[in-house]
């Protein structure tokens, strides 16, 4: 996760066609693994990902953009108008609440 003037950049690995939308884990390289119910068809998984992140981070969907990996499982997402500490805290809170 990196912070710049454009917002927080987050590396994401998506697993589609899951039983439910959920934050799965943080991989050894810092990539956030997310499971999504949507199939990787016609941008449905990307829309599902942005909605999931918006809900998780409590930001509008309009503040989230996929800047790399639009058609890949590995994506680079930027979240605007939020700081990296808040993103980190909300991700870890979500992971810890399931333990």
Fold and architecture overview:
- Strands 1, 2, 3, 4, 5 and 6 form a six-stranded mixed sheet that branches.
- The radius of gyration is 12 Å and the shape is globular.
- 28% of the residues lie in helices and 32% in strands.
- The chain has one domain: Conserved Hypothetical Protein Mth637, Chain: A (2-Layer Sandwich).
- It is of the alpha+beta class and 99 residues long.
Features:
99 residues, six-stranded mixed sheet, single chain, Conserved Hypothetical Protein Mth637, Chain: A, 2 helices, globular, alpha+beta
Number of strands: 6
Q: What is the residue-averaged pLDDT?
A: 92
Total of domains: 1
As residue ranges, the low-confidence spans are none
Give a concise summary:
The chain is α+β, with helices and mostly antiparallel strands.
Topology readout:
Layout lengths: L1 E3 L2 E9 L6 E5 L5 E4 L8 H14 L6 E5 L5 E6 L4 H14 L2
Parallel strand pairs: 2-4
Antiparallel strand pairs: 1-2, 2-6, 3-4, 5-6
């Amino acid at each position: 996760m990196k912070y710049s003037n454009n917002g927080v950049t987050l590396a994401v690995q998506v697993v589609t066609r899951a039983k439910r939308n959920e934050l799965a884990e943080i991989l050894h390289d810092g990539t956030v693994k997310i499971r999504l119910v949507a199939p990787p068809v016609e941008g449905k998984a990307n829309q599902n990902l942005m909605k999931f992140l918006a809900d998780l981070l409590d930001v509008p969907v309009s503040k989230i953009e996929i800047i790399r990996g639009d058609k890949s499982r590995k994506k680079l997402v930027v979240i605007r108008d939020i700081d990296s500490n808040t993103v980190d805290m909300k991700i870890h809170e979500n992971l810890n609440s399931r333990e």
